[in-house]
Amino acid sequence: MKQIRTRFAPSPTGFLHVGSIHTALFDYLLAKQSGGQFILRSEDTDRARFVDAAENHIMDSLKALEINYDEGPDKAGPYGPYRQSERLKLYKVWAEKLVKSGRAYADPYTPEQVQEFRKQAENEQKPFLFRNHRPAKPPTWDGTQPLRFKSEPKKYTWQDAVMGQLSAGAEAIDDFIIMKSDGYPTYNFAHIVDDFEMKITHVLRGQEFIASTPNYLNLYEALEIDRPIFATMPPILAPAGNRKLSKRDGAQDVLEYLRDGYLPEALVNFLAKIGWNDGTEQEIYAMDELIKKFSLERIPRAGARFDDKKLLWLNGQWIKKLSVAELAKRCQDFWGEVGKEAKEAEQLEVLAVVQDRLKTLKDLPALSEYFFATPTLDLKMLENDKQLKKISRTEQVEMLEKTIAKLETTDWEIAKIQSSLNELLEITDSKPMILFSLIRYCLTWAAFSPALPETMALLGKNQTISRLKTAASFRA
Ligand code: GLU
Q1: Would you give the end-to-end CA distance of the chain in angstroms?
Q2: Domains of the chain, first to last
Q3: Is 247 designated active site?
């Protein structure tokens, strides 16, 4: 397989949207599959929209998910620098080449004049094309006027690795600005120069670039360079699938997800499954397997849904797969007030019991604090429980007293605790939904807990009985 070189080329103008990191992951998988390289290029030419912290945020996000770039702003490589603002001389050389060959000219108009042309077209109900207003004698370009590409309008048909064959008529082609008056290139020019200089073989990007592709094709020809393979990513849709995903759908940036207790493995798995599948029902994929199985051919053209419930489920699955020791490492910053002070051995015991119940690492305090400290009794929980509110407080107390008596003669092993609990269903003539919920509340005063026998075994006999006694003796 020929080595593939891909690039992720974000503009550091804000935080990294999940849609962008999705493209970065696909770039990475494609390059690594062929033994090639994945490059990070900072497209920081829009100085008005530049955000200082954004570049670090992007790099941190990629590193956190182990979407490791081989070359980038902080990783030297043969075609650097990898920040466009540090490549200005290079763009100038290419721009001058176009001036020389008669394929670029200095734009002499003021913004007001251009606005006037636009209005004129509007009045005539024609699409505005700058090329209809080319100056007869453009001034010599001195680097301070905008420089425009002199297009050669024609029809194009091109191949997109995802979308198949695309085409557009000559009306899609116009004279666009390639160098701005501040000396910076536009995206439309810079990315073409850079992709060529950096030997990029495949360009993956969103659908918003399809409309400009004929212009790019025209520019490739003028520069006499080959173009890379284009692959257009499907848009990511909101969970309901009816519109493009936005912030209000709860989609966060990657670092926020990590702070919220999602595992990098789960995020990578989740992102990979948005708009890609290998034709099977398989859901769980690790990075290694994704690298082997990924293919552009299996990316759908239509939008791909962002299903946050699926992400939560995947996260739970990935948490279950970790060894307890590894889980402990990941949980370091997630313990509750009391849990974080506990001895490591105790923490490990608790993790072994709660692991299956964790959907995110953030669930840890709610699922674990009651193991380390006696929880505060909260009878409201019993009153609010759908099942438990059906029985009176007196009946509850009776059940608890019978439970205490039975447990006092129980050997403290999970299997024995389990059979005592089963016997108690008969002794109290009650359903699991009632009896077990009651016991669970009285031990934990929490909305969730691991399975009852495991919880009780870990609490120990004395602590279990003492908590049940406290609950039984409290008469509202
Ligand atoms: N800087 C462009 C953006 O962030 C990159 C698009 C591309 O991948 O070529 O939208």
Answers
A1: 75
A2: 87-233 (3.40.50.620), 257-369 (1.10.1160.10), 374-473 (1.10.10.350)
A3: yes
